[in-house]
Amino acid sequence: MAPGRPLPEVISDILAFQGAVLEKTADECLEFLSPPSLSAILGIPEHGKMSFTYQSSYDEVISAGYDSDLFRAMANVFSGKSRLAMAAYSSPSLNIEKISGSVAEKIVLTNATFRPQKVETRAVNYLLGFFQYTALSDEKREGLIPLLASELNLATCAPGEHIMEIMEGLQEAVPDQKPKPEITKVFQAACSAVSTVVGEELSPFIKSLDKRLNRDIKRVFEYYETIKIETQKAIEKRALSGEQSMEKQREKVNAIEIEKRWKIQDLISKYALNIRIEPVAAIVIETQSPVFWLEIKRRLSSRPFPLTYNPLLRKLDPLPCESCFYPRGGYSICDDKLHIICSACFKKCPQCGKLFCSACHKHGCPRCSKGSGK
Ligand SMILES: [Zn+2]
Ligand SMILES: [Zn+2]
Ligand SMILES: [Zn+2]
After folding, report:
1. I need a surface site. Which of 22, 250, 300, 367 has the fewest CB within 10 A?
2. Which of 356, 272, 42 is nearest to 367 (CA)?
3. Rounded mean pLDDT of 50-58?
């Protein structure tokens, strides 16, 4: 499932959500009819065409690419008092009993057990964030990633192609609703998760970058080594006929070696990768969701945890990883605070070889790095 979506689709979703009417035209543009208030925020006329390709010579058409004024103005749509739009989503009717039955098979903990407690249906808010990423190296890659995070337990997931259905199902929130202060935590979890999603999305690009860097370094290395050998040979010949001093000869070879290192350094900077991720828009979505309270037990301690059913994606939310918020591999429970930690974050210290919880110790192994976070 690719979490990234084409820019035109996401922009039309956001604009449609703000009351605009949009239609794709034959020349790959988007014809729009925008409410006056939205036009004012975006600095566009109430009726016109926008294009996502770089054909700016075309005066009538408004450019909506990543580098455009319109794209930058999109952030204003969600700015103002809170920078967050509020929306509601009416949950489907659910067979709670059937979902309850699947909890046990969905949740697997490597070093702990859990017991289902009560089930309650209650208000649960989700944050839907849209993040733009730009990866810059000798080439450029960019994209937009939507990400959902549950306010109750900070579980995150990339809705991928389901984003369309979610956007279509959004309704106006109760007027004057404002996001709660806790939403900051949810937003941070989403930001942490999205950095991993972007890493996954870019992994073929990063692999190809490494491959090209290694190939070019090998070429430069071989080129200069050949020159060095040839120079050496020429020097030896001349030395035999007494033309050049040994000192001069050594200088020549050294100069070649230095130039080789510079060239390699140049290549490393040429292929250096700079990734920037920025939140473009975010919507707080109010839903009603069944919450399955679990009692997580590790040794003599236990902790209640609310597992949420995601009405937007119509499936149980995954457990969160309380360190990276984008769990990979299995789940473990830490000894001290009973954090839920994914296997990528329940790390073996490279120095002492002991496992430690990255949520308890953000700055590395508590035994090896003094003054680490608690
Ligand atoms: Zn993790
Ligand atoms: Zn250690
Ligand atoms: Zn912990």
Report:
1. 300
2. 356
3. 65
